[in-house]
Write a structure and sequence with these properties.
binds pyridoxal-5'-phosphate; 2 domains; Aspartate Aminotransferase, domain 2; Aspartate Aminotransferase, domain 1; 41% helix; seven-stranded mixed beta sheet
Length: 382
């Protein structure tokens, strides 16, 4: 195997998906359409992992592909910024009015790191508090290869815990540049927690960054910011915005975004036609098909079914986590979670065990019921 660690996307590693000892599970794929994945082993799978949440319209959506083909025919990339950049920025401003100005990048991790850089430049402070997963870059991680000095200017706040959050923010005091939050971590945020995060950052002159990489274009077009009326200073988008094409966005208040110019945030392929066109087509298609209403309703069917299974197997340490559009079963016993995921795959279902599953426009009641039936049978036997 010439790829270190078997694959470049850690979350697609077979041991993470199916456990270290699983046999007869798909390790690579050759093709995907709708919610169906074709393994390199020649078998077909019903999928709920949906490119780790990068796809909300289904794999290979025809309207998005059409726009992408046209973008390829226009030359893909050139020496000047494409017109599409400003046009998409304007569309985003209409959807999320707080995104007065934006910058495009390629990955969620890059865009959240850019938000943190901008917040540090704007406040002239170093300390950052995070809540959730914000990508693999140094600023929010620890471990070998990450300098102690970088780790020393990052801390965390507890999700949905107003008292602990208030304490952590006040303890950071006037060293705090920003708080970066994921709005959904195993559950929806409470209004009280969101209010504490907003008020406490404001009182210290620190900024609030909302990381909507998983939630925007999924729980609502404008994500949690729209759904729960959060008023952040900066917003980060990614994943579903371009239905599988690589695009991420950092944006927010114009006076804050101005500070991007004091720093060097630039990437060769941040401005190419393909992903910008994919995003514009994705947004149009979500609106045309009313996709997010569909996600909410098939998602609710999945979530209700998972909740029932969790109730049935509560004594065996099985729990349901998430919200309708992004949910999973959590297990007290790691070995059992691996056995269930591997056995589901053997029966033709790809269902993530350690992180969210996502419904898409391509899922219907029948695909949800089929997944729940398989999960029920497998839980009974593993
Ligand atoms: C909330 C959140 N932020 C940031 C990221 C990082 O995005 P990417 O993997 O595109 O770098 C992820 C990825 O899962 C995420 O879920």
């Amino acid at each position: 195997m010439s790829i270190a660690g078997e694959t470049s996307t850690g979350s697609k590693r077979p041991d993470l998906l199916f456990g270290p000892d699983a046999s007869d599970v798909p390790r690579q794929m050759v093709r995907a359409h709708g919610c169906i994945v074709h393994g390199a082993n020649g078998r077909e799978y019903l999928d709920f992992i949906m490119g780790l949440g990068a796809v909300a319209l289904g794999y290979g959506n025809a309207a998005v592909n059409l726009a992408v083909h046209a973008a390829v025919d226009r030359g893909t990339v050139g020496p000047l910024p494409p017109e599409d950049e400003a046009e998409l920025a304007e569309e985003l401003r209409v959807i999320i009015p707080r995104m007065e100005q934006v910058r495009f990048l390629k990955t969620g991790a890059e865009a959240v790191a850019a938000a943190v850089r901008i917040a540090r430049a704007a406040t002239k402070r170093d300390l950052v508090l995070g809540c959730g997963y914000h990508g693999w870059l140094d600023w929010c991680n620890s471990g070998p290869g990450i300098p102690q000095s970088t780790q020393s200017v990052f801390g965390t706040i507890p999700f949905n815990d107003p008292v602990g959050t208030r304490q952590a923010i006040r303890a950071a005091g006037d060293r705090l540049a920003c708080v970066v939050i994921e709005p959904v971590i195993d559950a929806a945020p409470t209004a009280e927690w969101l209010a504490v995060v907003r008020v406490e950052t404001q009182q210290l002159g620190a900024l609030l960054v909302i990381d909507e990489v998983k939630t925007a274009f999924r729980i609502a077009l404008g994500g949690a910011t729209e759904l729960w009326r959060v008023e952040p200073d900066l917003i980060v988008l990614g994943k579903a915005i371009a239905n599988g094409y690589p695009l991420a966005v950092v944006g927010g208040r114009a006076d804050v975004m101005q500070h991007v110019q004091q720093s060097w945030i630039s990437s060769t392929l941040a401005t190419e036609f393909v992903s910008l066109a994919a995003a514009r087509a994705t947004i149009a298609e979500i609106k045309r098909t009313n996709a997010l209403t569909h996600l909410a309703s098939v998602g609710a069917r999945l979530f209700t079914g998972l909740t029932r299974l969790a109730e049935q197997y509560a004594m065996a340490g099985v729990h349901c986590a998430g919200i309708s559009q992004m949910c999973y079963l959590r297990y007290d016993d790691e070995a059992r979670s691996a056995r269930v995921a591997a056995e589901c795959a053997r029966r033709g279902l790809l269902f993530k065990r350690t992180a969210y599953n996502f419904v898409s426009l391509a899922h219907d009641e029948q695909s949800v019921d089929s997944a729940l039936k398989t999960l029920g049978e497998v839980l009974a036997s593993c």
